[in-house]
Amino acid sequence: MAVSISIKNLSKSFGATRALDRVSLEIAPGELFFLLGPSGCGKTTLLRHIAGFYRPDEGRILIGGDDVTDTPPHRRDTGMVFQSYALWPHMTLAQNVAFGLEMRRVPAAEIKRRVHEALDTVKMAARADSKPNQLSGGQQQRIALARALVVQPRCLLLDEPLSNLDAKLRLEMRIEIRRICKQAGLTAVYVTHDQKEALSIADRLAIMRDGVLEQIGTPLEVYRQPRNAFVASFIGETNFLPPGFFGAAYDPGQATKLSVRPEAVHLGTPPAGPEFLRLDGEIHGTVYLGETAQHQMDAAGADGARTTLTVFELNPEILARDEARPATAWIHARDVVALPQ
Ligand code: ATP
Questions:
Q1: d(C-alpha 71, C-alpha 67), whole Å
Q2: Residue 214, CB-side half-sphere exposure with 13 Å CA sphere
Q3: Helices 108-121 and 167-184, interaxial angle, to 10°?
Q4: How big is the chain by its Cα radius of gyration, in Å?
Q5: Ligand 1 mutation target, pool 11, 43, 190, most atoms within 8 A of CB
Q6: pLDDT tens digit string along 264-292?
């Protein structure tokens, strides 16, 4: 049965560092929730509080409605998966996975059945008798997942579980982790630096800065409607423009800045209609990357201020690098985000 996780007004300081500052968060049963933010923002500290490795200075933590703030880690029923798999090298994979059940004095026949089930879930049942050193990094991380799942935790806590893997394996494993969490109906909290990991598999995510949650939402909400300049520039790339950049064509309201993603700037003359905002300027630098080209475009706003924008062009056909050339581009008004700060 999937459980909710409630974080209520959690604060934690290490000396003068306020690692968590009145953090409140509701994670729904069965949700795959990501914590994202720059190094030192407090992600791991929050995860460790949920696991029970830290006691908060203030605030409460509820798992499945039970207040576990004062419950030691081994009685919280959480499964943990870390960056380092920490498998026992002298044990077979089945023995590695069985270990947690043996510690809990589960009967032998049940251990056998549950180990097989867990290995099956991570698609490693055929390798039950192998030793960890016979496996690739991705396979070892699967075993680490099986080991966390086999004790049937109420929720799964993952701390940078894929950061030791190469890029291709990371792609594969992130899809696998989502499949496994959904199949097991587990509530999961996942800490990462990797925004693509979060955007691709999270149900919702939180962006943290200096111990504070800056924004919580679905990947689409956080990417397309960032609440402030920090979130807009932390997730993906963006261009900041002065509020009056488009003149009468775009009403910035109370905004102090506009944010426009590089992929929302299209080269060429705009289609007819007031929703298409025109830019005229000059491209003075291009990085060719195969599937895209990234251009630097100087454009003058309606207020006369010149701004350099990054523009992504998909499927580029010309390897233009350094020569400057005049360019016209357009942006759909709905792709302009007005930011308060
Ligand atoms: P990273 O992505 O680099 O792992 P993070 O977002 O997980 O960073 P935390 O590890 O949660 O950040 O750290 C938050 C802040 O608290 C940092 O300033 C860190 O130096 C400090 N901190 C964390 N743990 C401790 C500790 N045990 N003792 C002292 N300071 C700590």
A1: 8
A2: 24
A3: 130
A4: 24
A5: 43
A6: 999 999 999 999 999 999 999 999 999 99
